[in-house]
Design brief:
alpha/beta, Peroxisomal Thiolase, Chain A, domain 1, 2 domains
C-alpha cells in the first residue's frame, strides 16, 4: 500500500469569544473555579442559525489555498461531527456543495470526541489502497447547540470550532502506526438521552432537557487518562519510539488536567504537549485538526517531526496514531 500522510490543514473559530467572566454573570461559577478544574479561560460561540458545515467552510477554503488546490481536485470528503446540520442529508454532502467539491464523494463520521481521529483513520485506508487519490477530513462541531446553558458542569467546557486536514500519498514520512478501541459499557457516562430512534424528540423530552449533553465527569476523567495513555504507549512501544523522540503530542482537548496526566504518564515535557483548550475550550471533533493547524502555523510542527495524536470520547471510544510529519 502507498505511504500516506497529512499534507495541509485549516481551521476556523467563530468571532464571538465568551470568557469565564462572562459565564460568572449567568452561572454559579467563577473564573478561578473553571481554570482550576478545566484549564479553560475562554471559548468561541457561533451565531444562532449557523451549523457545523457553515463553520467548516472557511477552514476548507484556507486549506485549499495553502495547498494550492482547486475545490474540484478533492476526491473524497469525510465530515467528523456529533452536531450535524441535519440528521440527513449528511453534513459531508452540504460542505461538498458549499465548497464546490464537485468531484468528491463522502460521508459523516460520528464517534463523539474520537470522531476526527476515526475519520482520519478511515481516510488513510481509502488513500493507501488507491480508492481515492486524496481525502479531505473535516472535524466541526457546534457544541453550543447541544449544551445546557444552565448546567455549570458542562456549559463551561465547550466551544464551537472547525478544523480540517488533507490526506494524500507522500514520498517520505506520513502514517507510521495507529491503534483504536471502543468499550460500549461506557455509554452511560457520557451521552445525550433523547433525539435518536430509541427516544425521539417530543414535548416531554424537550421539557426534561434530554437533548443536552449528560456527563459523569469523574468516570470519564479516569478512563480518558488511562486509555489515552495506554494507546499512546502501545503505539510507541511497538515502533521502538521513545518519549524523547516525540516532537509533539496532540491530545484531544477535553480538560487540561487530563492532558497533564497523560503527558506525565508518557514522560513528556510541557513543550512536547499541544494545548489550545485554554483559549478554545473543548470543541469535540475540532480539537485535533485545530491543534495541528495551529502547530503548523506557529512553526512548532515542521516536516520530519514525530507527531503522536490521541483522543478519547463517548462510547467509550479512543485511540492513538503516530505520524512522521510530511510538510
Amino acid at each position: 500500500m502507498r505511504k500516506v500522510g497529512i499534507t495541509a490543514t485549516g481551521s476556523c473559530f467563530p468571532e464571538k469569544i465568551v470568557t469565564n467572566m462572562d459565564l460568572e454573570k449567568v452561572l454559579d461559577t467563577s473564573d478561578e473555579w473553571i481554570k482550576t478544574r478545566t484549564g479553560i479561560a475562554q471559548r468561541h460561540y457561533i451565531e444562532k442559525g449557523k451549523g457545523s458545515a457553515d463553520l467548516a467552510l472557511p477552514a476548507v477554503r484556507a486549506l485549499l489555498e495553502k495547498r494550492g488546490m482547486d475545490p474540484e481536485d478533492i476526491q473524497m470528503v469525510l465530515f467528523a461531527t456529533v452536531t450535524p446540520d441535519t440528521v440527513f442529508p449528511a453534513s459531508s454532502a452540504r460542505i461538498q456543495e458549499m465548497a464546490g467539491l464537485s468531484n468528491a464523494w463522502g460521508f459523516d463520521v460520528s464517534a463523539a470526541c474520537s470522531s476526527f481521529l476515526y475519520a482520519l483513520a478511515t481516510a488513510n485506508k481509502f488513500v493507501q489502497t488507491g480508492m481515492a487519490k486524496n481525502c479531505l477530513v473535516i472535524g466541526s462541531d457546534v457544541m453550543t447547540s447541544i449544551m445546557n446553558p444552565e448546567d455549570r458542569t458542562t456549559a463551561v467546557l465547550f466551544g464551537d470550532a472547525a478544523g480540517c486536514a488533507l490526506v494524500e500519498p507522500v514520498e517520505s514520512g506520513g502514517l507510521i502506526d495507529e491503534f483504536y478501541r471502543v468499550d460500549g459499557s461506557g455509554a452511560a457516562f457520557l451521552y445525550m438521552p433523547a433525539g435518536g430512534s430509541r427516544k425521539p424528540a417530543s414535548m416531554e423530552t424537550v421539557k426534561n432537557k434530554e437533548h443536552f449533553i449528560h456527563q459523569h465527569g469523574s468516570d470519564v476523567f479516569k478512563r480518558a487518562v488511562t486509555e489515552m495513555s495506554a494507546a499512546c504507549l502501545k503505539v510507541l512501544e511497538r515502533n521502538n519510539v521513545s518519549s524523547s523522540d516525540i516532537k509533539l503530542l496532540v491530545p484531544h482537548q477535553a480538560n487540561k488536567r487530563i492532558i497533564d496526566f497523560v503527558g506525565k504518564k508518557l514522560r513528556l515535557s510541557n513543550e512536547q504537549v499541544m494545548i489550545n483548550i485554554d483559549r478554545r475550550g473543548n470543541t469535540t471533533s475540532a480539537t485535533l485538526p485545530t491543534c495541528l493547524d495551529e502547530a503548523c502555523q506557529n512553526g512548532t510542527l515542521v516536516k520530519g517531526d514525530l507527531v503522536l495524536i490521541t483522543a478519547f470520547g463517548a462510547g467509550f471510544s479512543w485511540g492513538a496514531s503516530l505520524y512522521r510529519w510530511s510538510y
